[in-house]
Amino acid sequence: MQNKRSMKIIWAGCLSAMALALVGCGGAELENKTFPLAVVIAQQNGQHKICYLAQQLSDVANERADGGNVTAAAASGSTYYETHQSFEKNNRCQLDMTHTKAVIFQRGFLESSAFRTFLDTVRSENTYARNTLVYLSDSGMEEMAKLNDTLELPLGSYLEQMTENEQEVNEQAFVTLGALLNEQANASRTLLIPVLEVKKEQPVISSYEILQGFQLKGRVEDYEAQIYYLLGGQMQQMDVYLDKEEQVRLHSIKCKRRFSMHQEKVTEQIWLTAEAERITGKASEERVERTLENKIEEICRTALEKNEADLTDSSRYLALYAPDIYRVYGKRADEYRSNLTYEVSVRIRML
Fold first, then answer.
1. What is the sign of the dihedral through the CA atoms of 331, 335, 338 and 343?
2. What is the pTM of this model?
3. What is the pLDDT of residue 29?
4. For the CA atoms of 26, 30, 32, 38, what is the dihedral angle to 10 degrees?
5. In sequence order, which residues have a C-beta less than 8 Å from that of residue 113 and are 6 or more positions away?
6. Where are the alpha helices (DSSP H) in the chain?
7. Which residues of the chain have pLDDT under 50?
8. Which candidate, 270, 262, 254, places its Cα nearest to that of 321?
9. Cβ(55)–Cβ(65) under 8 Å?
10. In degrees rounded to 5, what are phi and psi of residue 113?
11. Is residue 185 a contact partner of residue 122, using CB atoms and an 8 Å limit?
12. Looking at CB atoms within 10 Å, which of 13, 52, 138, 214 has the fewest?
């Protein structure tokens, strides 16, 4: 018994010594590390250009430290990997992306082959967290970097807080690097990537880029994106403006769908149910239902005609809910969408 107790004491001492040694090594390494909270990536004239919005070492433990403690540093190279390595060599430091909150792609990057190469590098290097938020930007790299001089929080933390404070859309609906990596491998979903724009020294989401089947399909406005989230079960609540005097708020939103096919034409029947409370005015249940039905049908039809994009993301449901239609179209998503129409029915219970 005494021998066992002695062995436990020795073992505990060894583990403690190892832990202290590791902490010591970790502390030494921290001094040579840079911690970007946001990364802005562009491709110009065949060259990668990356701006690292990094946090001061003293504030690493406090990820929401004052924005003034964030430094902006740029690097360039022929590939993302080369640019990354060039930055570390020129600045005599190691980039640690585990604290990165947001990756912001500049206009045109997603259309280039560099986008796929970037994702391949992220997958193989495994340097970013899968839940790192993804944005596009119409504003210049310099404008995004300057935000750190004006925002109360570092840009990466500011964008993360925007997501956390979103009251209408579920947090899981926002696009992450993990979602992009899955889409690159499977090309099975529709994703709406938020587009950032600098207005009055604030980053705002001005529109959304549609990525469907890992192909860019153009942009939709905020009110159109709401319908995508609504039909995808990602809306916690939704404000519906009937006119200047009447507004209602939807809760307990549920969506069901059914598919039918006649002579290769596919009809997606959508049933939406929700509870509603009047914010202003005296709108009836019937008026709210009719307004929503017309709005959903119009926005989804317009997206098909203008962007060849299905905002209901219906093809991903075919294998489970309509195997006969799935057997006809299989992986031919473009042909399927060209033969798709919608029928929408909304039922509201006014509280």
1. negative
2. 0.84
3. 62
4. 130
5. none
6. 2-30, 80-91, 113-125, 141-150, 155-164, 177-186, 222-231, 285-307, 318-321, 323-329, 333-338
7. 1-28, 58, 60-61, 64-70
8. 270
9. yes
10. -65, -20
11. no
12. 13
pLDDT at 5: 38
Closest CA to 52 of 135, 131, 129, 148: 148
Amino acid at 167: Q
- Residue 339's closest CA among 238, 265, 267? 265
For 103, other C-beta atoms within 10 Å of its C-beta total 23
Instruction: Please report the pLDDT score of residue 235 as a whole number.
Output: 87
- Cβ proximity of 118 and 41 under 8 Å: yes
Q: Which amino acid is at 349?
A: R
Strand order in the sheet with 340-350: 238-241, 247-262, 265-280, 340-350
Q: What angle do CA 54, 55, 56 make, to 5 degrees?
A: 125
pLDDT at 21: 39
Per residue, the 3-state secondary structure of 289-342, as one string, reads HHHHHHHHHHHHHHHHHHHCCCCCCHHHHHHHHCHHHHHHHCCCHHHHHHCEEE
